[in-house]
Structure formats: structure tokens, C-alpha cells
Amino acid sequence: MMSWKVKSFTELSTHELYEILQVRTEVFVVEQECPYLEVDGKDLHAHHLYKEENGEVAAYARLLPAGVSYKEPSIGRVLVKEKYRGRGFASELVKRGLAFIHDEWGEQKVKIQAQEYLREFYGSFGFKAITETYLEDGIPHIDMILQDHTN
């Protein structure tokens, strides 16, 4: 059984929240060998977009409204659990995240902090680099902006 969900922090059950934090830690802290503060307080203000498959979180993104990370809304913590990669979930995740930001929040601009190796992936959605590559927690990153995602 597969389904996409988007929920505010207060709509998440404790089980859903646990699953989300577990998979985020699995990918961003353990798999990428990057110790950092994964639970950063922004989840309280976010909408959480995720795909469940076989009772577990297979793909996830955190949607942050304007004023939380940047003056623009943002998509972050984008991940696909390792065993679900290669199925197009990441593209679907970004498309759904952008649609939510446009349709629910009425926002056109979206700013992200992306790992440098994903520059072309995000570029395929219209994101443009606005910084040089820099290190964040030892990993090369770049800030990118999408001016208008209505097309």
C-alpha cells in the first residue's frame, strides 16, 4: 500500500513523527556520516510531506513557510530511503512539495539549500544557484532559488 501525505506538525501522530525522525537520522546523520543537530526546532512550523510504502516512510520532505529558514518558503530534508531509490520518488516529492507551496501557501519563490551534487536535479525543476559552493557540516552545499514554479 502506497500513499502520499502532507501534514502539519500538530497533525502528525507520535508514531508518524518517530518514523520521520528515524528515517531522517538514518539518511542524513548515519548514511552520510554527518553528526549534526537533526531535530532543529523548525519541524514545529513545517508541513511534512511523505510517502508511505509497506508501513514505513519511503520518501520525505520538510516544507517550511516563509520566514522560518529564509524570507521565502523552503523545501528541505529531502530524502528517499535507500531501498526505495531509483523509482522516481525524489522527483515526485519535489513536484508535490512545490505544488503545495504554490497551491496552499500561494507562494511563487522557493529557496533551498542543496547538496552540491544535486545541483542538476534541482535545476531540472527551475532552481538556479545563487551562491558559490560552500561547506555545511563538512558537505558541499549551494543555495538555490526558484522564482516561479507555475509552469
Q: Which H/E pattern describes the elements?
A: EHEEEHEHEEE
Output the structural class: alpha+beta
Average the pLDDT over all residues and give the rounded result: 93
In the CATH hierarchy, what is the architecture at level 2? 3-Layer(aba) Sandwich
Rounded to an integer in angstroms, the radius of gyration calculated over CA atoms is 15 Å
DSSP, total strands: 8
Molecular shape: globular
Kindly identify the CATH topology.
Aminopeptidase
Tell me about the largest β-sheet: 4 strands, antiparallel
Strand content: 25-35%
Protein name: Protein ElaA
GO molecular function: acyltransferase activity, transferring groups other than amino-acyl groups
Domain N-acetyltransferase: 7-149
Pfam family, one: Acetyltransf_10
Summarize the structure in words.
The protein has one domain (2-146): Gcn5-related N-acetyltransferase (GNAT) (Aminopeptidase, 3-Layer(aba) Sandwich), CATH 3.40.630. The protein is built from three helices and eight strands. By secondary structure, the protein is an alpha+beta fold. The N and C termini lie far apart (31 Å). 26% of the residues lie in helices and 32% in strands. The longest helix has 18 residues, at 14-31. The protein has helices at 14-31, 89-105, 119-123; strands spanning 2-8, 47-53, 56-64, 74-80, 110-115, 128-129, 134-136, 139-146. The strands form two sheets. It has a four-stranded antiparallel sheet.
